[in-house]
């Protein structure tokens, strides 16, 4: 047997070992348990490397972690593109506990992440959390909590756009991150007029076109969108809070 | 013709290794690298040197840093000089003083550390024995604790379904389950706990109270190993050219012989010349005294 065949045979055996040691992860949006492979060393290294790139760490983590979810899901009947972004916390917690360590320290407080995992199935996911429509005068905006795939796509574009912005140019950086965050939540924009309603689906637009549209929104419409996002963020926090301790799910979460 | 070799016992491998001589030319290149002061390049040079000097041992790259250190110190003692002359600064008074250490004492100390057996080899079993990984002391002479390459260097052997797949380590290491990392972290903590109080050298300052020691710790993660090796092998680069000039012009020694001799051997020629000159000067003085 040639050495290439030999290595690919070993990799297959390792993959089947990783599958056989798969873990059950409760995915909140599906309200059921899905089997995942544990992280491997490469995935762990990639996560750690992305935690070094300071300003866009969170976005790099989103992109990296989506790839991990896609690679590690064992149940092929489940489409990871249908997962919501709050599912990420549930999956990350399960992978961290199973592969690395169940202890987590924040502000000198040590918590057991198994407690967070136990509480996840008890958190109710209601339709009003997932979507809403806000209206101002002749404008109507359909909002939805982003799916993991959309979050990855926009984060990836944002990284490419902002990687050359100097860290010291904080205003530009924060402003751009803010606007890219908002567009993730917008599904459709409908302009109502006498001739009939004109709906623009954001799914079919380029990121820059989406930004161009929302920059024209009146301030009170943007406020309503932000209210929805804030309500969602409060809901999302339930997945990552134990007592008074908040768990930061990013690349550093996997650095133990 | 079989080359001359000398031997040293290394605890990690539980055996003796045959070492070839470090020749003058190679030593000059080592000193050039040390003068250039890039630790990564220097560590690589030492690894290449070990590979060339210990050709009977094909997997010397995998030997622990401790075994490598013992071999390199033996090379230093045999081929360059048996003692290490140091200029030390007293930590209390900041006064400088000279000290001499016998390299053989350091080697003996490193050979008799009496470390627990599982520091040398620690077996970890996963998935009911389907995957077995043997961890051991890092092989690199220069590494940082948070450097991810440490993973590769502490994994010594991998068995998958009872088959030794260590030969494919570089290609498969990334595909190992992350649970391995937890064990690696615990192993490194254990390794640090066992080695943290060991000093390569402890020198008493003559300018301070009796218990004031200048220590060179055996700490792989604080650069002290590579720094110590640099001290052991460092010398003025110009001195190499002076020796070459002297041996060729004054002693008419062929450059081929210089290249194929150890620095210690070349010192012997120089000492012969010095003794000869001293005898000649003595005879001259005697003749001058006998003049009418």
Question: How would you characterize this protein structure?
Answer:
The complex is a heterodimer of chains A (256) and B (292). Chain A has 256 residues and is an alpha+beta fold. Chain A folds into 2 domains: 22-125 and 243-254, no CATH class; 127-236, no CATH class. Helices cover 49% and strands 19% of the residues of chain A. Chain A has a 4-stranded antiparallel beta sheet. A two-stranded antiparallel sheet of chain A has the order 1-2. In chain A, strand 7 and strand 8 (196-201) form a beta hairpin. In chain A, helix 3 (57-72) packs antiparallel against helix 7 (148-162). The longest helix of chain A is centred in the last third of the chain and has 19 residues, at 219-237. The two termini of chain A are 39 Å apart. The relative contact order of chain A is 0.15. The model of chain A has no long low-confidence stretch (mean pLDDT 89). In chain B, helix 1 (24-36) runs antiparallel to helix 2 (39-53) and helix 3 (65-80) runs parallel beside helix 9 (224-233). The model of chain B has no long low-confidence stretch (mean pLDDT 90). The relative contact order of chain B is 0.13. Chain B has 12 helices and 10 strands. Chain B has 3 domains: 5-84 and 97-110 and 217-235, no CATH class; 117-195, no CATH class; 240-290. In chain B, 48% of the residues lie in helices and 19% in strands. In chain B, the strands form 4 sheets. In chain B, strands 5-6-7-8 form a 4-stranded antiparallel beta sheet. In chain B, strands 1-2 form a two-stranded antiparallel ribbon. Chain B has a two-stranded antiparallel sheet with strand order 3-4. With 292 residues, chain B is an alpha+beta fold. At the A-B interface, helix 1 and helix 2 of A face helix 8 of B.
């Amino acid at each position: 047997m040639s050495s290439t065949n030999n290595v690919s045979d070993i990799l297959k055996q390792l993959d089947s070992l990783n599958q056989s040691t798969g873990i059950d992860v409760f995915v909140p949006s599906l309200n059921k348990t899905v089997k995942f492979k544990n992280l491997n060393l490469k995935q762990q290294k990639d996560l750690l490397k992305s935690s070094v790139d300071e300003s866009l760490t969170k976005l790099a983590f989103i992109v990296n972690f989506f790839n991990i979810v896609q690679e590690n899901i064992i149940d092929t009947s489940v489409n990871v593109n249908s997962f919501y972004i709050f599912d990420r916390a549930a999956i990350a917690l399960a992978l961290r506990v199973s592969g690395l360590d169940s202890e987590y320290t924040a502000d000198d407080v040590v918590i057991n992440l198994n407690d967070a995992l136990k509480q996840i199935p008890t958190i109710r996911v209601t339709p009003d959390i997932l979507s809403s429509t806000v209206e101002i005068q002749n404008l109507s905006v359909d909002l939805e909590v982003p799916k993991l795939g959309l979050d990855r796509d926009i984060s990836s574009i944002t990284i490419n756009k902002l990687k050359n912005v100097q860290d010291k140019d904080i205003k530009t950086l924060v402003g751009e991150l803010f606007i890219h965050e908002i567009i993730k939540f917008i599904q459709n924009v409908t302009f109502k007029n006498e001739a009939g309603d004109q709906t623009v689906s954001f799914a079919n637009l380029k990121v820059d076109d989406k930004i161009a549209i929302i920059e024209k929104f009146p301030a009170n419409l943007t406020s309503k969108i932000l209210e929805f996002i804030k309500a969602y963020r409060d809901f999302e926090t339930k997945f990552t809070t134990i007592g008074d301790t908040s768990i930061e799910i990013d690349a550093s979460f996997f650095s133990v | 013709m079989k080359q001359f070799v000398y031997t040293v016992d290394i605890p990690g491998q539980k055996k003796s290794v045959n070492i070839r001589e470090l020749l003058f030319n190679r030593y000059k290149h080592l000193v050039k690298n040390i003068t250039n002061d890039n630790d990564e390049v220097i560590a690589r040079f030492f690894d290449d040197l070990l590979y060339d000097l210990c050709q009977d041992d094909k997997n010397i790259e995998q030997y622990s840093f401790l075994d490598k250190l013992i071999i390199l110190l033996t090379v230093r003692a045999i081929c360059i000089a048996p003692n290490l002359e140091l200029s030390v600064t007293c930590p209390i008074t900041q006064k400088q003083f000279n000290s001499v250490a016998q390299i053989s004492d350091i080697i003996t100390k490193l050979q008799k550390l009496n470390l627990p057996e599982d520091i040398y080899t620690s077996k970890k079993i996963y998935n009911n024995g389907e995957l077995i990984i043997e961890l051991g002391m890092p092989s690199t002479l220069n590494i940082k604790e948070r450097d991810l390459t440490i993973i590769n260097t502490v994994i010594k052997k991998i068995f998958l379904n009872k088959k030794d797949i260590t030969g494919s380590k570089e290609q498969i290491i990334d595909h190992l389950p992350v649970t391995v990392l937890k064990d690696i972290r615990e192993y490194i903590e254990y390794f640090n706990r066992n080695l943290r109080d060991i000093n390569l050298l402890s020198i008493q300052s003559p300018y301070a109270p009796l218990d004031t020691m200048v220590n060179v710790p055996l700490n792989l993660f604080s650069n002290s190993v590579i720094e110590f090796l640099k001290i052991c092998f460092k010398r003025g680069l110009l001195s190499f050219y002076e020796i070459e000039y002297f041996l060729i012009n004054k002693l008419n020694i062929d450059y081929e012989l210089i290249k194929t001799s150890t620095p210690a051997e070349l010192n012997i020629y120089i000492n012969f010349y010095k003794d000869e000159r001293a005898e000649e000067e003595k005879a001259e003085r005697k003749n001058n005294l006998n003049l009418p």
